[in-house]
Amino acid sequence: MTSDYILALSGNDIFSGGGLHADLATYTVNQQHGFLALTCMTAITENGFEVFPVDTALYQAQLQSLKKVPFSGIKLGLLPNVEVAEVSLAFVKEHAGIPIVLDPVLVCKETHDVEVSSLRAELLKFFPHVTIITPNLVEAELLSQQTIKTLDDMKAVAKLLHSYGVPNVVIKGGNRLSKTTAIDVFYDGETLKVFESPVLDKNNTGAGCTFASSIASNLVKGLIPLDAVREAKNFVYQAIQASNEYGVVQYANH
């Protein structure tokens, strides 16, 4: 039996909580072999937390190097600029037929409105070519150009994003609608499901990345999208619950 090869197109979190660190750790826990193409680096500078995109030609060379790997799934995280997104989209189109998860990270850094607008337009092009998108509330607002203040708003935006051509949508509400309950909304064109879990007062750095990569792992295992999301939410909850003050998790008993 061959291993499941699963690819992360992700950035480097200098604090090792999110991005590629969360993705590869999640794949390992799921007994899958993770590959990586690095999209960006991060660092604390005199300007604060900054994101430095990988040179586009270098990024393209990374993907070209992986061209012959028989991937069972792909998860896309932070695509720091339009150029990297365009190269990623071309790669995704070459891998039709396998589960592809798009975590449309738009707000992890300070950006100009023009840059966000350009990235939004580029990310929308991915929708017909991916299995599921996993925006948080702010990203869902930016992608839909709607305001989300209530659970009904989340449901409406999930349906709107689905209408843009993506088969499955899950909006991560986190604790923004309720300080005590983490709320996510899933929609696949027929089923509208609200997931709820208690908010944990612990370090949750990398939770969004872990959620998306866990969905990718579950899809590769053969779960349908709704079940993949359900299992991923439970996995993230358990990981946060088992983490220490640094966000380090003991996975031995998973």
Automatic annotation (TrEMBL):
Its EC number is 2.7.1.35. It catalyses: pyridoxal + ATP = pyridoxal 5'-phosphate + ADP + H(+). Keywords: ATP-binding, Kinase, Magnesium, Metal-binding, Nucleotide-binding, Transferase. One of its GO terms (molecular function) is hydroxymethylpyrimidine kinase activity. It comes from the Bacteria. Residues 13-247 form the Pyridoxamine kinase/Phosphomethylpyrimidine kinase domain. NCBIfam families: PRK12413.1. It is an enzyme of class 2 (transferase). It holds the Pfam family Phos_pyr_kin. PANTHER family: PHOSPHOMETHYLPYRIMIDINE KINASE, PYRIDOXINE KINASE. Belongs to the ThiD family. This is pyridoxal kinase.
